Amino acid sequence: MTTKTWAITDDVAGWVVVVAAILLLAAIVLLVHELSSRRQKSWLIFASGLLAAACVALAAVRPVVVEAQANLVGPRVVVLADQSRRMKLPYESTTRLDRAGEALRRVVDHFANARSSVMGFSEGPLEPLSLGPDAKLASRGSRSDLSAAIRELASAAGERPRAVVVVSDGRFSRPLGDLEDPALREAVGALGVPVHTVSVADETPNDSSIRGVRAAGVAVAHQPLAVTVEVGCAGELDCARIPVRIRELRDGVAPAELATGVAEIKDGVGTVELEITLDRAGGRVLEISLEAPSGDQIPENDTRHMTFVVARDRIRLLHLAGRPTYDVRALRRWLKSDESVDVVAFFILRDSDGDEPGAPSFELALIHFPVDELFTEHLRSFDAVILQDIDAVRYRLTGYLARLAAYVELGGGLIMVGGPSSFAGGNYAGTPLDSILPVEQPQDDKPFDSKAFVPRYTEAGRAAEVTRPIRELLGEQLPEMVGTNFLGQARPGAIVLWEHPELQAAGKNMPVLALGEAGDGRTIALSVDSTHRLAFSPMAATVAGRAYGALWDGLLGWLMRDPRYEAARVEVVGECIEGETDTTLRVTRLPGMRGALELSLAPLTQAASEPIVRLIPGDSVEPVEIRVPGLKAGGYTAKARIGEAPPSRHDFACERGGVAWADSRPDRPRLDAIARVTGGTSVGLDGIDELPMPDATRVAAQREVAPVAPPWVWTLAAAVLLGVHWVARRNSGLL
Amino acid sequence: LNRRDALCSITRGAVACGVAAYGALTTFAPRALGFGQDGAFHPRVLQNAGRPLDGAYAGGLSRWSWELIRRTSAPARLTVGSVAADSTELLAEPFTVWFGAEAVAPLSDPEVRGLRTYLNLGGVLFVDDSAPEVGSFGRSVRQELQRVLPESPIVPVPDQHVLYKSYYLLDSPVGRVEGPSQLEAISSGKMLRVLLSSHDLVGAMAQQRGGGWTFPVEPRQRERAMRLAVNLAMYVLCLDYKDDQVHAEELMRRRGRVRR
Known about the structure:
By secondary structure, chain A is of the alpha+beta class. Chain A contains 14 helices and 35 strands.
């Protein structure tokens, strides 16, 4: 195919053309003015002047003839395949993804004469796909953002496609389904070409599912949180009322039932608002599930597992002391000085068996120790319990120790502070509480030692963030402690921070300060009752008494999982989806933390299970990413231990399908609307042959440029015509 | 030595208590303590310019500890020590008693600094005028306290202060003498740093070597003084514990009954 066009010679600068045009225009204006102002018209002057000016201009720009030969090639067509995880939903005997793969092959065959590019979209950038005969289309990502995919195509360099074909079930994350035509056109019309759509699923499955879970505000420990659960019911299921429940998954104990309710389904959707109260701060894994009616074809989306990050506005502490001492005084003074701590305290001021106040009860400022009320009604409302030198038998705690142990295993904190009536001296040995403490308790006739000593830091104590504040103040100096409870060896997994320089337990120096984990909770054992010397003593005075607060700030912070006192931060990179790619955990160690990294991962189940353990040698400060394959849906707890420091914990949820499977209904109307607003065609899998072929693309193959006349011709013509014009003007007496 | 053992031993030698206390009165020196005794209530006497301590009054301090052990679950040390204001040992424990009948000598600069450090660290100083009828001790101590804490005024302790309900429900302070209806204090927020008494509280508890009371006091008044001493000890050990909300309603109800 050949075409001819006119042009200006290439070697003339643009400004020359402009100047020539201006001069020509000016000459014409002058000639017209002169012609109209004279009584006797001189057409010869006008015509010769006009031609002379034109010839001067043409001599300057020298016009050429361009003869081009062009070929027609097949139009460029981009095929976009929806690769979101939703496409893995079953459809008849196969999946939507398999049907999309089949559709892609048919589309490419249909556009055999076109230049087709096949790309996958989900979230993130487009990915080119290769369509081998046995190639299976893989899924990726939980969202399917068609708007972003088309914008990416429009902004790409190179030839624009003449048409786009979208293969999907239509349940896009964007554009949304309820857009008006102008908004929809703006969302998918960035290319300005027809967007054809191929629906891979038209039939709505019989499926009830949890479509969405929304919380009204931020989850705060101990405060009720309204959670709205949206339940969908599609297909031919009979689902007027669907029961919904929320449970909290916990480590080593049964899940906690938080709330139940019933969603009333109307027009295929219903919501139920459930009020839950999470008592523990940090990442908590919730299981939201519905009781599906019979005939549900996709049970995988009946349960969602979600990680709720629970904040804490104040720490609620229960402080129980068996007798008032300077050690009790110091702890109370520090607790009351911290605005973020809400402390409820009960100190035994009078032992009714022996003390003789010499006054009737109404003259005493003493109240009954409400042990039953505390441990049955209110225990759950506290973040931690401090038992300080209080005898379990004398003050009737024995009957509640199992409950207290269960409270810890459900996520509560416990600190046992030393004293004659602590540990074995307080009859705690062999009780349910014994087993959750980080140290064993020897059942000996002599429960404590009175010899003064100075505790010393262990290797773990020197590495732990929990002791960093006090070490920054006092180095490794500690005040002399007057005696200690006898403690046994540390339990497996416990971390000893201080040890006795002389006393032994199971062949090692006896623990003095130890940290441990019990189920979801944490415990601290402190065998001495002289830490008040960190607040008030000549040594304390050297740092204005701040060492006491530094110690207890660290202990309480660690107990409450304050990130400042963890050795490392653990997080999940991306999502954790059953059956998808490996789950990636990123461990970032705090500055200064040295030693090998040991990551253990275990499910949040009641039954103990063998954890997955990864050991990363070295002590690089760079974040480490650890890939863990094959995680099933549920809750998990990851514990990262750096060197000798206490482990840091991160709970997270793994889902089956996740948000991508929340709504299983295909959306053919949305595909139709997208095609309509862009001038495309919407078809099903069987209608691919009906998709229109775009016009072929013209591609230039050869181009020849020839001057209309040699330059001297234009110059000569201009000279002759200027001469004629001069003569004519002279004859008319104008010169 | 645990609390129960201590009580038994004291019961056996109750008559000789004051004598023992007097004999134990020495310049403060670290002693071997049993486990659990490190945090026990222990009234130490603040030495002033090396003046000798009155043995009868020292016996009153021992009696104070004994009454605390007898009446409450709080542990206390029966031995009485004394400590100098410029000694680092002043910072060993958070409670010190400063009593006397005569005007005190001006504190040296190291003593002023020592007391200031003690109080700033959270120590409590109980100033008890043994001769409030004369008042020279009280006046001189007030002058010295102005040097120690120049920015802190001495103000009356209000009737509603937790000191009056830390163990017994009390209406007013009383010691060997009835004295004024209020104690005075230098406070930091809600916390009493220095408590000043013009009632000779220690004198009400003072015993002779033979076990008899040093000063004649009407028994009911002495009991009230004992109760105030117990409350003061409990305040030192528990601070504002009885101001906690869990106690508030019950204590208000009882106080109403006591006043009726």
